[in-house]
Amino acid sequence: MALSKIDTEIEQIDQEKYLRQATSYYQPLEKPLKYGPEVNSLSDLVAALHREFESNYVNIEMVNHLMLSYKSNPREWRKYAKFDRYTYTRNLVDAGNGKFNLLILCWGEGHGSSVHDHADSHCFMKMLKGDLREKRYEYPNRSARDNGRSHHPDGEIDSRELVEIGETPIAVNDVAYINDNLGLHRVENPSHSDTSVSLHLYCPPFDTCSVFQDNLKKTTAKVTFWSKYGVRTKQNEQ
């Protein structure tokens, strides 16, 4: 096949559709690629991510490599780390030209998220400071074909409450990955004396997600930003 034809086909790929389809089969890396590019700073990471997302065919494995390769440096991310006394915060670092969102989340002592999904997007979560604990749950009423597990003869999850399937500690410079085919999750800072900071990449970006209660009641939650580019957002700009 001629290279020009290959280039044309890549240009015709719908990036958002491709990324969402990729959640059905992508398996995360455990360590950086041997021959992948180096990432020596947060600005290197942002620039490399923009290059990856220039093409409609995004190499998710390379995105994973970039997140693994960056090593936390508080001097670089401190200006984005905005805390709230009562809840964890979501602070936008880079909007990715509408193709991805890079955020820093700040977790006060004992702060945690609700159980939520990721709107059929990829979620990479890297620890920058402290520790977090991820609890993962089966996604209610998704077929075994979607999540690789079944508790019902017809392939449907038959449960009237959330089913926990794992708990994982996340330490500094570790990267966790989840998408809706792998389940739901809840993230919390287990410490009652230390804060935590994490770096999250979502692709494609999303404005709403689903939040779940123990009895499987599902509600739609709007995704907001506590700050953007290091500046506190106004209520109507979140």
UniProtKB/TrEMBL annotation:
Root EC class:
oxidoreductase
SUPFAM superfamilies the record matches: RmlC-like cupins (SSF51182)
- On whether DNA damage is a keyword of this UniProt record, the answer is no
Per UniProt, the keywords (alphabetical) are: Dioxygenase, Iron, Metal-binding, Oxidoreductase, Thioether bond
Q: Which Pfam families match?
A: CDO_I (PF05995)
Catalytic reactions on record: L-cysteine + O2 = 3-sulfino-L-alanine + H(+)
- A single GO molecular function term of this UniProt record: iron ion binding
| InterPro entries per record | CDO_1, RmlC-like_jellyroll, RmlC_Cupin_sf
Cofactor(s) the protein needs = Fe cation
CDD domains hit by this protein: cupin_CDO
Top-level taxon in the UniProt lineage = Eukaryota
Q: Which residues bind Fe cation?
A: 116, 118, 185
Kindly tell me the pathway this chain contributes to: Organosulfur biosynthesis; taurine biosynthesis; hypotaurine from L-cysteine: step 1/2
Give the cofactor binding note: Binds 1 Fe cation per subunit.
Give the family per the record: Belongs to the cysteine dioxygenase family.
Name of the protein in its database record: Cysteine dioxygenase
Its source organism is Drosophila melanogaster (Fruit fly)
